[in-house]
Amino acid sequence: MTETKPTVLVTRRMPSAVLDELARSCVVDLHPGTDDLPHEDLCARVRGKQGLICMFNDRIDAAAIAAADSLRVIATVAVGVDNIDVAAAAARGIVVTNTPDILTGATAELTWALILSVARRVGEADRAIRRGGWTGWTFDYMLGGELRGKQLGIVGAGRIGRAVAAVAPAFGMRAVFAAKPGAGHHPSSDETVLSLDELLLTSDVVSLHLPLTETTRHLINRRTLARMKRSACLINTSRGPVVDEEALVWALEERLIAGAGLDVFEEEPRVHPGLLQQEQVCLTPHIGSATRETRAAMAALAVRNVVEVLSGRPAVTSVGC
Ligand code: GLV
Is 0.90 topped by the overall pTM? Predict the structure, then answer.
C-alpha cells in the first residue's frame, strides 16, 4: 500500500535545497513569485493542506485558520509571530513554530549597522557624494557624534537585545536595559535595569527589541519620545508598530531627538513620507535577518519543524511551549 504524503503550502520562494528536503516527505504547493500571496488566495490554498510555511508578512488570522480544515502545523520563517492568531491555532490543535536564535546574530549586526550609520551620518554622506554635493574637505563637514562613553538603552532584553548589548563594550558604550513593563525582568548580576522613563531620559542611543503585542504597540509615542535626550537617536529593528511613526516624524521635525535608524515600519512596504524627508534618518527595508547564511538556516529550520510535526514528533522550536 502506498502511503500518501502530506501536502504543505509554502507562501514564498525559498532556497531550492530546502524545498527539495521538504519534497522528500511532503507534496509541496509553492507560491513561486516574490510577491505576497493575497490573503483570499492563501485562505483558498491552505484548505486541505497539512502544513503551512509562511513569512512574517502573511496574515494568518482566524479566517485563514478556519479555512485550514486539515492543518497540523504552521511554520513561520521568522521569530515574530504577531501575524499569526496563535490562540485560534491552539484552539484547533495546530502547532505554531518560529525560527528563534538563528537570526539573533544577523539582526544584532544590522542594529549596529544602523547605530553606526546614524551616529556617523553614513547614509547622508553617501547621498551627498552621489548628488555631487561634496565639493572638498572641510574641517567641520558632516560631523557626527561619537559612541565612546555613551549609553545604549536596550528596550527588550530578549536574545536580540542582549546580543546587541554584548557588542556595546567594543565601542566603549555602556548598555542598560529597560525593565519589562508590567512583568518581572530577571537581570543577570552585571546588567543595569532602569525604568523605561529613566532609560529614555539618560540614553544616547535607544534600541528597540520587542515583540509586537497590544502592550508594546506604540510604546514609543509623543510622550515617550519627548522623554529622550535631544542628542539621542532611536533604532528599531523589531516591529514597526512599536513606534507611532506620526509621533516620530513630529519628534524629528521638532528636533526633540537627533536621528533614527529604522528597519521596520508601521505599514510595510509603505514608509511615512515625513521620514523620507529627514537626512538624519537611516532607512533599511526590513532586512534584519537578511544574510545568505541566516535566511538559509531559517528556511531549513521551518522545514524541519514541519517534517517533525507531520511525522508525529515534537517541533524543534514551537511557539509558546
Ligand atoms: C523578522 O522580522 C522576524 O520576525 O524574523
Answer: yes
Alpha-carbon gap, residue 195 to 280, rounded angstroms: 27
Ligand 1 center to residue 289 CA distance, Å? Answer: 7
97 backbone dihedrals φ, ψ, rounded to 5°? -125, 155
Tell me the per-residue pLDDT of 179-213, one tens digit each, with 9 for 90 and over: 875 555 566 768 899 999 999 999 999 999 999 99
Contact residues of ligand 1, CB 6 A cut-off = 56, 78-80, 103, 288-289
CA atoms in the 13 A half-sphere facing the CB of 70: 13
Atom 3 of ligand 1 has which residue's CA nearest to it? Answer: 78
Beta bridge partners of 270: 267
Can you list the domains of the chain with their CATH numbers? 7-101+292-310 (3.40.50.720), 104-283 (3.40.50.720)
pLDDT in tens, 256-268: 999 999 999 999 9
- Alpha carbons 64 and 42: distance in angstroms, whole number: 7
